[in-house]
Amino acid sequence: MSVIPMGASLADWELESLQPIRARLLLSAERLKAAGCDFFVCPDNTAHLALESAGPELPLPGLHIADVVVSEAVRKGYSKLGILGTKWTMSKSMYYEAARRRNIAAIAPNHEDSHYINHTIFSELCNGIVKEPTMKKYVDIIGRLQKEGCNAVVLGCTEIPLLISAEQSPLPILDSTRLLAQYALKVALGQKHIPNWRGGQVEIVVDQ
Question: Rounded to whole angstroms, how far apart are CA atoms 206 and 61?
Fold first, then answer.
């Protein structure tokens, strides 16, 4: 795992200019290849949007975080997921397509709630600030997703588990970072197949 900090790409994210971001991630994958790695994992949910975009094949195969998370959702019998994350993760197709490939549904919070989540990720959680009022607001947001028929919620940002635990959430949580790490360990130990995804269009790349 070699991760270039998201801060280096924030200006490009605001412009939704994916190619410069993909180029930085490609450099990261090249470093891992040179170090002798067999596959890569990227714990940054949003970065996968750039990895999915058109461009040269990545030098290493990798796990796709949304595919890992949705596979776990199916394994646990969840049929409709609420997606929490940055504004790009919540608004773009990554998780919704991953859910569609597994024949389940996924939705984002409403516009106001999505704006609040994105704002607090960057203004609070990324700065190590964890506030009880923010936690309570997230609980309310998850409660609204539950009323819309969701039976699990994806914590689709590395920092959100700092704020919300399984005990606090009205819905079962799918911690994307933790699930990716657990699946990657199984691959490294030979308990799961090495993935074949090298960026670009995604098919189902993990088994259950």
Answer: 12
Cβ within 8 Å of residue 202, ≥6 positions away: 52, 64, 66, 67, 97, 98, 101
Q: Fill in the DSSP letter of residue 179.
A: H
Cα–Cα distances (Å) from 138 to 99, 133, 206, in that order, read: 22, 9, 30
Tokens 């002798």, located at residue: 36
Distances (CA, A) of 206 to 65, 122, 131: 10, 30, 36
Name the strand (E) or helix (H) holding 84: strand 80-84
Angle at 47 between CA 197 and CA 20, to 5 degrees: 100
Residue ranges of the chain with pLDDT lower than 50? none
pTM for the full model? 0.90
